[in-house]
Design brief:
By secondary structure, the chain is an alpha+beta fold. The chain is 42% helix and 17% strand. It has three helices and three strands; from the N terminus they run βααββα. Strands 1-3-2 form a three-stranded antiparallel sheet. A hairpin with a 2-residue loop joins strand 2 and strand 3 (48-52). The longest helix is centred in the last third of the chain and has 13 residues, at 53-65. The protein is globular, with a radius of gyration of 15 Å.
């Protein structure tokens, strides 16, 4: 069976809420509060939330540079 491979490979562009929880080592409730805070860009697909990797990474870099939240 032949495997189909996309011609143009696009890197990961979003995080899930669980990935954000893992990166920040925070609880589920705090992760959702943060996602709904407007600090970075999110996309809602039905009930699913996806976080823009670029905007989250920039936000996190800024937080780290300023010594925390």
């Amino acid at each position: 069976m032949e495997q189909i491979v996309p011609k143009c490979s696009v890197g990961k562009r979003t995080y899930s809420v669980d990935e954000i929880r893992s990166i920040l080592n925070i609880g589920r409730r705090k992760a959702y509060e943060l996602c709904n805070s407007g600090e970075f860009k999110i996309v809602r697909i039905g009930r699913t939330i996806r976080i823009s990797k670029l905007s989250f990474d920039e936000w996190l870099d800024n937080i780290e540079d300023n010594g925390g939240i």
